[in-house]
Amino acid sequence: MQRILIVNPFASGVTERKLAAVQAALPAGTQTLLTHARGEATELAAEWSPRAEALYVFSGDGTYNEVLNGIRADIPIGFIPGGGTSVLPRALGLPRDPARAAARIAHGALRRISVGRFNGRRFAINAGVGFDAELVRRVDGLGRRPDGKRPGDIVFTWTVVRTLADHRLRYEPALEIEGLGRAAFAIVANCSPYTYAGRLGLRVVPDASFEGGLDIVAPVEVRPRGILRLGTQALRGRPGGSDVLLGHDLDRILIRCDRPMPAQVDGEDIGDVTEAEIVVERGALTVLS
Fold it and tell me: Is the bond into 193 cis (omega within 30 degrees of 0)?
C-alpha cells in the first residue's frame, strides 16, 4: 500500500524548496499529488484513502478541510503546515517548520481526535455563524496575490478593523442557540487555540479539546464599550460574563438565525445559513502527531 502526499502549491507557505524538504523527510516511496483547483483535494482523498497506508497533506487549513471531507477510510493522516496560519497542525502540537513537522509525523504516534459536522460538512478546528464568517468572506473577496496565494496577516487585521467599523462596533442579537439563548454571533471550536495572530494563539474557547465534544462562545450583543473587553478575553483565554453564552463538551448545537447569515468551517466560506445543526463525531479521525 502506498503513502500519498497531497500538496496545494498555491498555499501561502508552500514553495518548491519547502516541498523538496518535506518529501525528503517523509517515508521513501511516498507519492506526491498536486492540486490545481478548489475541491480537488476532496476528490484525491476519496480516491486514495481506501487503498493508501497513510495520507499526508502539505497545505493550509482549507485544503485540510477538503481532505477531511473526502476520506472514505479510517487511515492515519498527517497535516503539514503550508498555509499562512495552518491552525490544525499547530493545535496538534506539530512544529511550524514544514520539514520538521514532516519528520515528526513520518515516525509519529497515532492519535484519535474528534471532528465536527456543520450541516453535514466536517470540520477539524472551528466553525462560526456571523462575525468570523463575515471576516472570512471579506478576505476571500480581496482575491489572491499575483502568485496565487492568499493575503497575509496584515490584510486580515485590517479587514477586522474595517468590518467592526462598518458595523459601527455594534452587533445586535440575531440568532437563537437552542438551550442557551439569543446571541449576536456564534463561534464553535473543536480545539484551542481557536486561531492564531502571528505566533500568538487566540484562546477564544480555551477549554475546547480534540478529545472532547464541541465548545461554543456567543456574545449576546456587542457595543463599542465592550469591544476592548471581548478582545482582551480572547487574548487571555478567559471568555465569560453575563453577556456571553458559553457551552462546553457538547454533542449537538442547534442555531436558528433571524435572517440568512454567513457561515464558515475551518476558515472556509460555506455560504449563508438560516439554521445550523452542528454535531460532534467523537474519536472519528486518526492523525499522526
Answer: yes
pTM more than 0.90:
yes
The answer to whether 124 and 265 have CB atoms below 8 angstroms apart is: no
Please check whether residue 86 is in contact with residue 112, taking contact to mean a CB–CB distance below 8 angstroms. no
> What are the grid coordinates assigned to 202, written together?
487566540
DSSP three-state, residue 196: strand
List pLDDT tens digits, range 5-39: 999 999 999 999 999 999 999 999 999 999 999 99
Quote the CA–CA distance of 48 and 45 in Å, as a whole number: 5
Q: Where are the alpha helices (DSSP H) in the chain?
A: 16-25, 40-48, 61-68, 87-91, 98-106, 131-141, 153-166, 224-236
**CB burial class (10 A; 0-12, 13-18, 19+) of residue 4?**
buried
What 8-state DSSP symbol labels residue 124?
A: S
CA dihedral 242, 248, 254, 258 (to 10 degrees): 30
C-alpha cell at 48: 486514495
Which helix (DSSP H) or strand (DSSP E) does residue 183 occupy?
strand 181-183
* C-alpha R_g of the chain: 19
Helix (H, G, I), strand (E, B) or coil at 73: coil
CA atoms within 13 A on the CB side of 278: 34
User: Which domains does the chain show, CATH number per domain?
Assistant: 2-108 (3.40.50.10330), 121-282 (2.60.200.40)
Least confident of 166-175, 214-223, 239-248: 239-248
Distance of CA 243 to the CA centre of its chain: 26
Angle at 237 between CA 218 and CA 266, to 5 degrees: 60
| Chain Cα centroid distance, residue 119 | 16
DSSP single-letter state for residue 9: T
DSSP assignment of 227-255 equals HHHHHHHHHHT---STTEEEEEEESEEEE
